[in-house]
Amino acid sequence: MTPLTFLCLASYYKGDRFLQRCKQEGCTVYLLTVEKLLGAPWPRGEIDEVFAVPSFDNRLNLSHAVAYLMRTRRIDRIVGLDDFDVEVAADLREHFGVIGHGESAARLFRDKLAMRTMARALSVRIPDFSALHHHADVTAFLARTPGPWLVKPRGDASAAGIVKCHTPDEVWHRVHGLGDAQSSHLVEQMVPGDLYHVDSLVDNGRVLFAEVNAYWRPLLDVYQGGGVYATRTLARNSPDLAKLRAANEAVLTGFGLGCGASHTEFMKSHADGEFYFIETSCRVGGAETATMVEAATGVNLWSEWARLEVCRVAGGYKLPVLKQGYGGVVISLANTERPDTSAFTDPEIVSRLDLSNHIGFVVAAETAQRVEELLTSYVARIQRDFAAVMPPLETVAD
User: How many CA atoms lie within 13 A of 321 on its CB side?
Assistant: First the structure.
């Protein structure tokens, strides 16, 4: 088979292992990023050429830039490495006739309204919701659904931009305040509960790998109330494991992911104990999720996603041998630029976050109990000695 040529889009610095694995598989690797990230520590030894544009916001200018590159360079795959790059990559694939999701298919993994509409059609359990573009529908939704409610942007990642409302008047105040941006938002019933994420690999429409993890606190609580972000592997004997994997498979197969990586979130309601679909994606989760999953299972999601893309046509993809360990992540904005973490000496630490004004660790152990002990200790110590006000989670958790 002729080696493939990848054009990887990155409006944020991430995806080193994807780029490296593509090169290891014999592919030609081009990186298209934004000018402010040209100085980021990309693995340039494993990238054939790096290109940059001022931003990805102007789609017409971006397509012109890619068209110019393609005059002299063959491109077989276009991959968006960050959540915000998914629709950009889909637009370019459709324009240039490159294999992979087009705009409509990609929208199911970026647009929260499209996700909920499809989930409802598939009979996947979701919080009740309404689009905002027809006010009579919003009135009917508020009449039938008890509060509180969440007004959400349809396209932002994680908990960014979400506003919690306790009365119908608060909802309408938010809706009217959005002006012409109303149709780019939705309103849904808030389901208090425990938040989980399932990190998956999909090949030929089948979910081959699904690692289930539980957030320490729901992301909206961290985003709006501050504090420390943490997540960890769900106990492998948990009765919730099979339920979450089944719900995840229903979403990814029903949405037609086909091939690639996904980070999907579910809320277990405190009221009825049921799992509600919150959102999905067709990319690797952020906030050191991939490092945690690799520490627990031996599977690096970035690297395996690259292998899946290489094998998309030729076939022959096989998962690496899996471990059955446990991992955890803890991250916080720090009160100093480079916090001294030398007092954290546990041998279970496999990675320390290297990011200005942040503190964070990835841990791995043979038991869920040990990971829980470590995270409990670290959350308390970080809150006491290091934590500062938490920034919007798109810079940390996604």
Answer: 0
Name which of 68, 69, 59, 60 is nearest 31 in CA terms.
Answer: 69
8 A C-beta contact, residue 187 and residue 180 = no
Adjacent-strand bridge partners of 189: 149
Q: How far apart are CA 173 and CA 9, in angstroms?
A: 38
Q: Kindly state the percentage of the chain with pLDDT values over 90.
A: 86
Q: How far is CA 330 from CA 190, 214, 292, 374, 377, in A?
A: 25, 12, 10, 10, 11
Q: How far apart are CA 238 and CA 268, in angstroms?
A: 13
Angstrom distance (rounded) from CA 326 to CA 349: 12
Q: Tell me the pLDDT tens digit for each residue of 122-145.
A: 999 999 999 999 999 999 999 999
| Model pLDDT for residues 168-185, shown as the tens digit of each residue | 999 999 999 999 999 999
Q: What is the pLDDT of residue 226?
A: 63
3-state secondary structure 65-83: HHHHHHCCCCCCEEEECCH
| pLDDT tens-digit readout, 184-228 | 999 999 999 999 999 999 999 999 999 999 998 766 666 655 678
- Cα 398 to Cα 395: distance, rounded to the nearest angstrom: 6
Dist. CA 222–CA 216, nearest whole Å? 10
81-116 core/surface letters (b: 16 or more CB in 10 A; e: else): bbbbbbbbbbbbbbbeebebbeeebbbbbbbbbbbb
**Higher-pLDDT residue of 30, 393:** 30
Rounded Cα gap, residues 225 and 245, in angstroms: 30
Q: Which domains does the chain have, with CATH numbers?
A: 5-107 (3.40.50.20), 128-189 (3.30.1490.20), 193-395 (3.30.470.20)
Closest C-alpha among 158, 198, 40, 225 to residue 396: 158
- Say how far apart CA 335 and CA 342 lie, in whole Å: 16
